[in-house]
Amino acid sequence: MSVNTTEAMIAARRLLVVDDEAVQRLLVGRAASRMGFLADDATTLEEAVARLGRTAYDVVVLDLGLRENDGIELLRHLRESGTDPMVVFVSGFDERVRQAAARLASALGLRVAGTLGKPLWVEQLVALLRRVPETSGRRQVTGTGAIDPGRLAQAIEQGEVHCLFQPKVSLTGRRMIGVEALARWRSPEFGVVPPNLFIPLAERAGLIDRLTWCVLRQALGSFRRWRAACPDMTLAVNLSPLSLTGLSLPEQVSEALAEAGVPAASLVLEVTEGAMMGDFVMAADILTRLRIRGVKLSIDDFGTGHSSLLSLMRLPFSELKIDQSFVRTSLTDPEAPKMIRAIVSIARELDLQLVAEGIETADIAALMQHLGCVVGQGFLFAAPLSGADIEMRLKDCTWVDEARG
């Protein structure tokens, strides 16, 4: 086998079809191959779990009925696999059952491309596969069993944790209006450690503040250079709920901004709804003082918690991010656009900047714009980029990714 052929096989997108009917596996496999996927198949839950343990797939086509098991059982394995494939449900059950499965998958943090009935129409499957982004959403699987708090603390101190930046883009003009800083850890012995592994570890081990300040200072250092090209852009940094317990936080943020020479109005701190579920009075104290100092506040993952409206009423948020579970299913779940339209109305009434995150296809971007969203974020516009890549794309503030947009 030639080097070029090997490289092509490594670069090709991979699809796994999990179905106990041979004809269905054959139909899906042939359709996937015509679209450039390398297709594997599994007939049982055990076989599918084994394949997922060996290979990172871009798409999993899943039958909800697998002999003595059901396809729902595989969703938990997908969530824990360290990969992030798009999921397509194929089933003879009625649409309500298929949609319930899709909503469950989204609630587990999985990406759902859509649902199809049986007998399968290949044209419908092809249409769904066309929505799978060229840039893979897979996360690298690494042997991270030996990671402990001491090793993570060492990584923070030695600079192994770094920032990538995902653009926030105007949906009308494709102009980059801001970036979100994302923590990434590349370890010499573990490789790329997924954030969903090391961030919860940092929270459990009492290291989350050290991690947050590491990310904030790195991000502000890069952002200071970019403001010369685009002075109106903003920098967003995630704030853990556990950080909303220290009353000195507003002063520390102000000091970090002053050291970097970045105005407070350029910084957006993103907090999840869960941040207000603990000591609400303490969180309100800290967040209100941050706003008084000029820092903007964004409520992240809006719509996934039962405190959403109460939080918006009581706290001085300036931005609202629609949870990606609504955005990603907006073309396949008839309830999702209704929810998004309602959230858009709330944001307008409260004069909040609105961001739709998780935009992965041009069709979803068009729908978000039609529903009233003006800012988007997701793989359609860019995967998380290095600081150097952001600088290259900031020549005139009219950032457009020609490969996608």
Quaternary status: single chain
What strand order characterises the main sheet? 8-9-11-12-13-14-15-16
Mean pLDDT rating: 83
- The fraction of residues assigned to DSSP E strands is 15-25%
Count of DSSP-assigned helices:
16
Structural class label: alpha/beta
Using only C-alpha atoms, the radius of gyration works out to 22 Å
Low-confidence stretches: 1-11, 135-144, 400-405
CATH architecture of the largest domain: Alpha-Beta Barrel
Number of strands: 16
CATH fold name of the largest domain: TIM Barrel
Distance between the termini: 35 Å
Largest sheet: 8 strands, mixed, barrel
CATH class of the largest domain, anyone? Answer: Alpha Beta
Question: How many domains, in number, for the residues?
Answer: 2
Helix content: 40-55%
Overall geometry comes to: globular
| CATH fourth-tier homologous superfamily of the largest domain | EAL domain
Keywords:
single chain; 405 residues; alpha/beta; Rossmann fold; 2 domains; eight-stranded mixed barrel; disordered N terminus; disordered C terminus; phosphoprotein; EAL domain-containing response regulator; cyclic-guanylate-specific phosphodiesterase activity
